[in-house]
């Protein structure tokens, strides 16, 4: 994926959507104004600018299984593009068949998050990138050994050199993390039906989905699931059925952080099942009912659950373009 490929559709979409703005009048303007459309790109940190070379390298590394100790697990193993860039199983299966403690979050739109992982232990994508490589339950790879493996391939020497041209020895852990983060910042899903609705296409979503939008606001779901990525990136206490996970407490050891988890994005939630931190909730309808009970103290009736579910289905955006790389 090139920078040009990202930017040009933004300009075209902006022109078209501006033209359509005036046509959207269905009496729900006060509700629409509570939401934000998803930008095509998240904020880009000053120390990790997006370049075509860095994105291409990050793409290769994302699919590279030889940076795992077994040589068969890559980032894409658990973040499968065909499965909403997640894995659609309750909890991830990693090195030697070990099962992790938590459900795999999608990497889609992850650059918009205020922190990474369910417990927020990484501040950004750069801080997140190396964690799974070293985690014993995931890729279980010593980082120096991973770098040594990459050094052994002439193509990686070439690609790291192109991405970091002013460095004598560019195959470093920092550059590995930055390349992975750069690639992940291109994995965004703008132009969902709801985005088109916000931009003025009155027919982009159904009447039931509009009813769901109203219910989403009136019942208070928007208090935590807000902003363009439908998350406040804050930590809230919840004990979903079957979970004993202490959440953010594992990071801070603050009593007040027990059972607190970062609010997950609702973007593409219809294709990133199962749900909750333990992945024990199989359907979106179940998830809506549980959140009503646990977070809002409400027992939603079937019509409300159906309406909110219809609304959430409109948050599935256009999947990012990428190439499955030819690895050395």
Structural class: mainly alpha
Average pLDDT figure? 93
Determine and state the CATH class of the largest domain: Mainly Alpha
Q: Percentage of helical residues? A: 25-40%
Rg calculated over all Cα atoms:
21 Å
> How many domain modules?
2
* Topology as a string of helices (H) and strands (E): HHHHHHHHHHHEHEHH
CATH superfamily of the largest domain: Cytochrome c-like domain
CATH architecture of the largest domain: Orthogonal Bundle
Largest sheet: 2 strands, antiparallel
List segments where confidence is low: pLDDT < 50 over at least 5 consecutive residues: 15-24
Main sheet: strand order: 1-2
Describe the protein.
There is one protein chain. Mean pLDDT is 93; it is low at 15-24. The protein folds into two domains: 3-40 and 191-313, Cytochrome Bc1 Complex, Chain D, domain 2 (Orthogonal Bundle); 52-184, Cytochrome c-like domain (Cytochrome Bc1 Complex, Chain D, domain 2, Orthogonal Bundle), CATH 1.10.760. It has a two-stranded antiparallel sheet with strand order 1-2. The chain is globular. The chain is mainly alpha-helical and 328 residues long. It starts with a helix and ends in a 15-residue tail after the last helix. 41% of the residues are buried. The protein has helices at 3-20, 29-32, 52-62, 75-78, 125-128, 131-134, 143-151, 154-163, 173-184, 193-198, 207-218, 249-252, 284-296, 302-313, and strands at residues 235-237, 260-262.
């Amino acid at each position: 994926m090139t920078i040009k490929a990202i930017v040009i559709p933004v300009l075209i979409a902006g022109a078209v959507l501006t033209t359509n703005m005036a046509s959207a009048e269905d009496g729900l303007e006060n509700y629409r104004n509570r939401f934000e459309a998803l930008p095509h790109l998240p904020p880009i940190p000053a120390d990790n600018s997006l370049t075509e070379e860095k994105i291409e390298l990050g793409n290769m590394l994302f699919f590279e299984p030889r940076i795992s100790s077994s040589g068969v697990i890559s980032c894409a193993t658990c973040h499968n593009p065909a499965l909403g860039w997640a894995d659609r199983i309750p909890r991830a299966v990693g090195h030697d068949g070990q099962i992790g403690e938590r459900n795999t979050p999608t990497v889609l739109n992850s650059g918009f998050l205020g922190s990474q992982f369910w417990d927020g232990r990484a501040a950004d994508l750069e801080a997140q990138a190396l964690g799974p490589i070293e985690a014993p339950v995931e890729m279980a790879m010593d980082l120096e050994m991973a770098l040594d493996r990459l050094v052994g391939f002439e193509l990686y020497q070439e690609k790291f050199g192109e991405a970091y041209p002013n460095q004598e020895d560019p195959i470093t852990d920092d550059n590995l993390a930055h390349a992975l983060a750069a690639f992940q910042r291109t994995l965004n899903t703008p132009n969902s039906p709801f985005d088109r609705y916000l931009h003025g296409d009155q027919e982009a979503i159904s009447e039931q989905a509009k009813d769901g939008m109203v219910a989403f606001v009136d019942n208070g779901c928007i208090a935590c699931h807000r902003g363009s990525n439908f998350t406040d990136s804050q930590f809230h206490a919840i004990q979903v059925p079957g979970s004993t996970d202490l959440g953010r407490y594992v990071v801070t050891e603050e009593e007040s952080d027990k059972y607190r988890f970062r609010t997950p994005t609702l973007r593409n939630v219809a294709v990133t099942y199962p749900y909750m931190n333990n992945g024990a909730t199989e359907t979106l309808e179940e998830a809506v009912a549980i959140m009503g009970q646990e977070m809002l103290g409400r027992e939603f009736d079937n019509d409300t659950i159906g309406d909110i579910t219809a609304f959430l289905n409109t948050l599935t955006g256009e999947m990012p373009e990428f190439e499955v790389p030819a690895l050395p």
